Amino acid sequence: MVVDLRRGGQEQRAGGRGEFAPIQQLRAHEYVAEQIRRHIALRLIEPGEALQSERELAATFGVGRPTVQHALRLLEADRLVEARRGRNGGTFVLAPGDDAEAMLGVMARVMGRRQEIEEVLAYRRAIEPRVACEAARMRRRADIDAMTGAIEAMSKALTEAQYMRHDTGFHLALAGATRNRFMVSAVEDIRMRLSDVISLLPESDTWHRRLSGEHEALAAAVELRQEEGAETVMEAHVAASEQSICAMLTAIRRRLAS
Is-above-0.85 flag for pTM? Predict the structure, then answer.
């Protein structure tokens, strides 16, 4: 099975100079693997958590079990998941390595994407404040409940992985309040592309308190339908986050150069 990404399922025709090349098709197993990889990067699936069964994944994606099995082999090769046998077996998300070599690998990968990260940060400055404004205009009661639920779950998180999962949940709930699929997709893409960077930010109670305060202010502005207020709070939230990321990138560059 192949997932056809061409507009309307129709091939673009060659017609002369400057003609478009056909868009490459994405095989079904690559599509499934990419969707699971995206959820792992967004921390919507925690390290140590089991994926759905092969049968359930096949039903979710509308493909056969061989396609799911092929996708899982790709993820295993990337050391994102591992298969475990036995009564409590299944396919489990692997925790990122905590040893020094693995951490240096993440740092090197981040620095290798420095230009992309800078572009994503600029994109985020342009997009997320507008998302907050639109959320304040379009929100429904269920959106406020989802946002406050994510804030409460963050306060009860026992691990950094759990905390970041609910942090992502808050931002996706905010994006969902816009009722705009493209804004949701944009926020998902930003979170995914900044995943490695965010994972390197230092954990501390002070950091968590600051984030919680900003999230609570955002939720309050959205609930009160304060469009300009929500946009202003998000601008400050994004600026503070970017400042921390830039400081971390500078520290990493110095460490790798030493």
Answer: no
Q: Give me the DSSP letters along the chain.
A: -EE--SGGG-PPPP-STTPPPPPPPEEHHHHHHHHHHHHHHTTSS-TTPBPPPHHHHHHHHT--HHHHHHHHHHHHHTTSEEEE-STT-EEEEPPPP-SHHHHHHHHHHHHHTHHHHHHHHHHHHHHHHHHHHHHHHH--HHHHHHHHHHHHHHHH-SSHHHHHHHHHHHHHHHHHTTT-HHHHHHHHHHHHHTHHHHHHSPP-HHHHHHHHHHHHHHHHHHHTT-HHHHHHHHHHHHHHHHHHHHHHHHHHHHHHH-
For the domain with range 100-257, which CATH number is right: 1.20.120.530, 3.20.20.70, 1.20.1050.10, 2.60.120.820? Answer: 1.20.120.530
Q: Does residue 24 have a pLDDT over 50?
A: no
| In the chain, domain spans | 2-93, 100-257
Fold of 2-93: Arc Repressor Mutant, subunit A (1.10.10)
Residue 145: pLDDT band with limits 50, 70, 90: very high
